[in-house]
């Protein structure tokens, strides 16, 4: 019994000691963390996530949180009896829907995350892509070939946007004031229209514009899995492309990998896809030798 306790203590000490070189390496660096709607489902996990973000700040890293909330938007729309459909993983968003999307993302979810970080001892401020012109969006278009006529038609997704211009000044100002920014993926255009932006895409564009050292995508799988469902710990940009081409990645994993590739090409050192349902997934990934998810980097 006594030995177990001693071994446990030694184990904890070893883990803390192992973290030291990583703390040194990452002090002063910016990490962008995309916190997905599935990953934030459980209240206990959400509290641990907030504590981990505060810990990162405490050891000198500058965390920037970009959140999603797809399942929560879906719940609100069904409560209001508004139908919702998706094209290529993007929610078709009419004028009525974009109001609900903004209300759920910028209103309730954003403030819940901010409150959790503040309750864990951090100083956090919630903004959306509309604040200080952070995310100018342009309308997303998709085309589909009609199988009978073979004619390509343009599909209208409504107010679905993609980042066109990222102006990260407001993030820099918050970071310099030691505040942890929490960002809702809502954009605007010059006509004053509001756009619903996929949270992965928004986070990747922000990570790229900030030249972040790391970009983390917290999701509901261990990372990128191979065809035998085994976790792939590391992918080069070429290998990541191949995963999409050869069908290893499908569905929601495709835009995630594409976003990671885009972020690395824009100057992010490495992007990591990891399981947000694992307690302290971020800490394990950042401060331990093995890491926890799939790291996508230049080499
Ligand atoms: N090779 C793969 N490795 C891991 N997940 C994959 C792979 N191919 C497809 N997926 C699917 O991608 C999903 C993650 O994308 P998505 O559901 O859009 O996540 P989120 O809601 O967190 O944005 C996984 O739950 C899994 O079903
Ligand atoms: C255009 C589009 O599809 N926007 C997403 C925005 C939220 C999101 O991306 O949330 P997750 O990261 O939790 O999936 C949506 O409406 O669901």
From TrEMBL:
The record marks 34, 256 as: Transition state stabilizer. It holds the Pfam family AA_kinase. Coiled coil: none annotated. It is found in: Cytoplasm. Pathway: Amino-acid biosynthesis; L-arginine biosynthesis; N(2)-acetyl-L-ornithine from L-glutamate: step 2/4. Keywords: Amino-acid biosynthesis, Arginine biosynthesis, ATP-binding, Cytoplasm, Kinase, Nucleotide-binding, Transferase. It catalyses: N-acetyl-L-glutamate + ATP = N-acetyl-L-glutamyl 5-phosphate + ADP. Substrate binds at residues 69-70, 91, 196. One of its GO terms (molecular function) is acetylglutamate kinase activity. Its main location: cytoplasm. The keyword Transferase applies. InterPro entries: AceGlu_kinase-like_sf (IPR036393), AcgluKinase_fam (IPR004662), ArgB (IPR037528), Asp/Glu/Uridylate_kinase (IPR001048), Glu/AcGlu_kinase (IPR001057), NAGK-C (IPR041727). Its EC number is 2.7.2.8. This is Acetylglutamate kinase. The lineage of its organism: Bacteria, Pseudomonadati, Pseudomonadota, Alphaproteobacteria, Rhodospirillales.
């Amino acid at each position: 019994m006594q030995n177990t306790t001693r071994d446990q203590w030694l184990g904890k000490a070893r883990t803390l000691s192992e973290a030291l070189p990583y703390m040194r390496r990452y002090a002063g660096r910016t990490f962008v963390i995309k916190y997905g709607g599935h990953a934030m489902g459980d209240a206990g996990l959400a509290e641990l996530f907030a504590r981990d973000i505060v810990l990162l700040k405490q050891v000198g890293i500058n965390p920037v949180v970009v959140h999603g909330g797809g399942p929560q938007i879906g719940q609100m729309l069904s409560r209001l009896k508004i139908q919702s459909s998706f094209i290529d993983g993007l929610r078709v968003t009419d004028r009525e829907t974009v109001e609900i999307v903004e209300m759920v993302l910028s209103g309730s979810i954003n403030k819940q995350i901010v409150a959790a970080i503040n309750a864990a001892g951090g100083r956090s401020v919630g903004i959306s892509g509309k604040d200080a012109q952070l995310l100018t969006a342009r309308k997303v278009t998709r085309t589909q070939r009609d199988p009978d006529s073979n004619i390509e038609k343009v599909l209208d997704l409504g107010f679905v946007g993609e980042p066109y211009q990222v102006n990260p000044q407001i993030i820099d100002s918050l970071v310099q004031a030691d505040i942890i920014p929490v960002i809702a993926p809502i954009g605007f255009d010059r006509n004053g229209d509001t756009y619903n932006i996929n949270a992965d895409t928004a986070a990747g564009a922000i990570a790229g514009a900030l030249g972040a050292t790391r970009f983390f995508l917290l999701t509901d799988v261990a990372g990128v899995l191979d065809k035998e469902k085994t976790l792939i710990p590391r992918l080069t940009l070429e290998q990541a492309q191949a995963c999409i081409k050869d069908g290893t990645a499908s569905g929601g994993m495709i835009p995630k990998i594409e976003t990671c590739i885009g972020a690395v090409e824009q100057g992010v050192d490495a992007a990591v896809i990891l399981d947000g349902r694992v307690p302290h997934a971020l800490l394990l990934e950042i401060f331990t030798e093995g890491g926890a998810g799939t790291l996508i980097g230049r080499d």
